[in-house]
Amino acid sequence: MGLETLIALVVLLPLAGAALNGFFGQLHGKRLSGYLACAVMAASFACAASAVAGLSGLSPASRSVTSVLYTWMDASSLRVEMAFTLDPLSGVMILVVTGVGFLIHVYSLGYMAHDDGRVRYFSYLNLFVFFMLVLVLGASMPVMFLGWEGVGLCSYLLIGFWFEDAAKATAGKKAFLTNRVGDMFFALGMFSLFWATYQAGSGTLAFAGLKANKHLIEQATVGAVPLATFAALCLFIGATGKSAQIPLYVWLPDAMAGPTPVSALIHAATMVTAGVYMVARMSWLYQMAPGVMELVAWIGALTALFAAAIGLAATDIKKVLAYSTISQLGYMFLGVGVGGYVAGIFHLVTHAFFKGLLFLGAGSVIHGCHGNQDIRKMGGLKDKMPWTFWTFLVATWAIAGLPPFAGFVSKDEILYEAYNSPHGSLALWLAGVVAAVMTAFYMFRLFTLTFLGAPRMGKKDFDHVHESPAVMTVPLAVLAGLSAVGGALNLPGGIAHALHLPRVLSDWLAPVFPVEATAHASNEWALMGASVLVALAGTLGALHVYYRQKTVPVADNARLTVPVRMARDKFYVDEAYDILIVKPVRGLGRFLAGPIDKRVIDRVLAELPPAVAYWLSARVTSLQNGNVQAYAVVLFGGTVAILAYLTLYLR
Amino acid sequence: MLPIVLPVDTGDLTALGPLLAVLIAALGVLTVDMTFEREEARGRWSFIVGLVGAGLAAGCASLWQWEAPGRAILGGALYADAFSSFFDVLLATLLGLTLVVSWYCLDRVKVKPAEFTGLAVLSFSGMFLMVRAADMLTLFLAIELMSLPVYVLAGLSAGSKTGREAALKYFVLGSLASAILLYGMALVYGVTASLGYTDIAGYLATASRESGVENPLFLAGLALMLVGLGFKVAAAPFHMWTPDVYEGAPTPVTTLMASGVRAAAAAALLRFLAGAVLLTRGHWMMLVWALAALSMIAGNVGALAQTNVKRLLAYSGIAHAGYMLLGLFALPRGAGGFSMYVAVYALSVLGAFGALQWFDDRGRETVDIEDLAGAGKRHPWMASVMTVFLLSLAGIPPTAGFAAKWFVFAAAVQAGYVGLALLGVMTSLFGAYYYLRVVIAMWMDEPADISGADQSPTTGLVLGLLALAVLFIGCFPGWLWFLADLASSKLV
Amino acid sequence: MLTAIVFYILATLCVVTAVLTVTLANPVTCALSLIACLMCLAGLFAQLSAGYVAILQVLVYAGAIMVLFLFVVMLLNLTREEADEGTFGTARALTSLVCVAFLLDLYVFVDAAVGTRDFTEALEGFGSLAGVGEALFSRYLVPFEVISLLLTAAVVGVVAITRRQLSVSKASEPLKVAR
Questions:
Q1: Interface residue A62 vs chain B (CB under 8 A)
Q2: Chain A environment of B425 (Cβ under 8 Å)
Q3: ipTM of the complex
Q4: Interval A553-580: pLDDT, tens
Q5: Could you tell me the pTM of the whole model?
Q6: Contact at 8 Å (CB) between A337 and A298?
Q7: Domain coordinates of chain B in residue numbers?
Q8: Nearest CA in chain C to B23
């Protein structure tokens, strides 16, 4: 099989799975639907692996294979092909998406075993993977946009899958609205890039074509602003929507209303990283807009800090993980923002391992505790759920940034870039370090409260707690293994140098990213030491407070200090959004829609004197409101305006 | 004494096939109405005759040699060209679908099937005339032939006050718009001394700029004609009637108004602008620019606060008129994007209204978003189908709506109207909010009530196939674009 | 000179009677002023040497259609409208403003056109019996046939509406013709 065929298969297999389950799921039954979904994911992963292997057989310079399915839209000079490009960057992504996706599918077999909507669930899940693959493999911006919208859609559907209360519906709406704002800017960025190339006579939206025409984009301007800056900014705002960054992060915690494997797949491992991937994909554009890069780095750093702070006080196991995801995504943006694209993507990969694992572990805990998600009512689960306990420990260890697990290596690399890169600074590094302390603290807080200490639930409930079946624990074990050794993908420069080992990921991704290598700095060991120290500090702090002193977070306001209360209430951001944006927008809509048929017409125009109203209702009962006259006046008014406009053209 | 010679040959009759098929079907339905005693038999047979007519029309239209150059027939009153054939196929499809999706709902809204079918087919015969009208007189009469039955249909629901009110509003305002249109035609005729599009174009090409293209009276006439046609496609600021009428009319009639009527009106608009007055495009493009911008803003903003789905779709239809008009900027190169947008919009909106009728098992004229809450739980299949149509209207890939928007935006950009295209992109993305409000209500809100009325499986199947077609066009828009472009490029 | 005088008299009368049609309170006087207006229009047509059109105007509008109007008025026993005289609200002000603006617009266009641009001459026999007949049965045969369809549609529509009204009234209460 040629590489092109393999690439097409990677994408189309999940689609076929979704279609088979969606259309014929009722025929072949619930049991089979799960196996079918897993089988297509396994096949897709196998294809992805062999495609990447095939790609690595090519010379580094020619590692970009495009598989054109057909011409999607062809409007003379604006031609879009349904094409997928496999290059080192998308290769890494498809391995993560299909690999982690496969594990989560297998896990779902156990998690969803008792659910009636299994067929639909697996159909949506496969469909999601399809769109995610379209997003990462898309050879042009419209194809990426197709995936971008598609994953959003699937995620609303999956969030709303178990709508049992109003909160879930609200969550779906919030996710939708914030993403809409992001998508609008994404489209705007896409549009401006097309316009820049189109004006110069070579309109294109293919990534390769845009990159080849980057001199045209560099010369173009929007008003006084360079077009590159404008486009990069728009695309980044789009990314903040999908990847839950300040200011558009509010939807992600609420999205946890969906089933836990969905949170693991969509809201941790894949979809939310799409923004990071997109910035990395457009790295050449961001290189032309250093101001925007700085903004990306700062937004990332601030989000990392801010979300970690909220994570310190959250008491819902999934909410803690959600804020942790936002915070880790902030790290990734910090990485790509300072030009450390490899570091950002590396963290994306390791994060997919350990955060996927954390969510699945949390799912296992919730599964075992019969739906309880409040960590204040857990504790002592260590012996009841040994597999979950040990794998969760590995993941916590990794995310806290303790050596030698994967999270340590990738986070360290981001902090190293934040300090040493030409775009980096001490302040960015400090923000990252403070966030790292908090990360270690809230993760071990979560871990301790859940698994260690004495059980805080009723005796009867505790007795019923059970370990999950093997179909769920095996994926946990595999992910735990990956979280442990994933750091080997890209060893820290110093270590790799000392041991004469290759830095696999850096070398692999080298052809994709702009060459702006950060000089090998002598402070590497010092920075690494600092990372280890802060991670240790956070870990020990959490263990001290929650394990030694056996503190349990409290619920009532009176006993909370103000900062903690603010953190628990998510700094009132949702409320502020509601007051500042949601209400005014709704009001505006009402105001603008109202006047058209209500306010102006009813009040100003049709505020006919009572006599007229009486006349109307008495004569023509069916025409009670007399709006027709007003409509006619507007019709005439429009005519008058058009004619008046034309008089300007009279000579 | 001049001999009266009507130049008719058999080739002309082939070209007239679709029109004749629908005309005969219309008369056939009337005959059926008189023949059968029982209401039920009347309804069934008129339905069958109508469907056969639609099928024959579609068949005849697809037989036409699409590559053949267009020509005027019957003494220059009608055109026979690929553009007519394109819209013939579209209109025949719309007629068939309208009949099928409305069939089971007519009882619920208390409209007699025979009357609905008869008037609908008559109205469609007007539409078939409209898309091939080659002079202003035929155009005007065709518009009236299309509109009269719709005025009646809107008020046909027994005992429905809102329906009668909607009918009266539509009638009064429609007459006003017709008067304005007629006034415009008179002025254009006064300047050019001809009614035929080709003759008008010929006059403009030969007369001096002063007396022709820039003649004030001609421009005034052109503007008034734009107002009249703009009313029919419901472009702002001539849109005021849409929400009230769409809401008040029985849903089967609204389905027809939103899809067939607007498709035919749009086709007639394009044919007039491209065939007769292309030379003055410098003037009318500015007007179209204003209408498009206003429509996109007014429609999308107006739809935001709606709680009634029919009203919401009415406002969004105004916005779609704006997007549609963007496709006109591709002239003089052939406005394939425009035709494609019209086709995709008509199919999607027909599907949406069809699904709405399917859900609305009590035959209320108004369906609130809340009524659809939990539809995904009760009827997951039909909710998915409705979702596809709404996504297509919202222009989200991979549905047909996205592809269609792509082509009209591309047309505007290529003509240099970047600002307007940008406005279109922004409003469409922002505007998609209200469509997804419906989607979210269907999938995520708690069911309002679990009602168990019988819904027709046939209708469901047809709507499902239409949804698949919408998805198919979204994934493979190439062929439709090719046909639309082929049809529209021959107008000039 | 004489033509001009006649034109201005007819035109003024036309406008005045048109305004009266929409402002008078009694439906019968309204209808009568409409007749007067249509008559004046016929006169204007005659002045343009479109004799046949003038006659048609009188026969069809002033004759047939107005008789129908009056029949309806009398059948429904309409009397003076309980009118809203003396009230001049915002709505009316705006309506009047729009109408005046419309007229002004048109005036601007006509003013710019007349006398400065060339217009195509009307054909020989335009508006005469032979001219109209010939146009109707040769060049405009298709529109002529479409009119028959239009009439069919109108008849069908009217039947549909009345049938509905009848069945509704029958079901509820005996039909009352007049109040």
A1: no
A2: 184, 187-188, 191
A3: 0.86
A4: 665 455 556 566 666 666 666 666 566 5
A5: 0.86
A6: yes
A7: 10-489
A8: C149
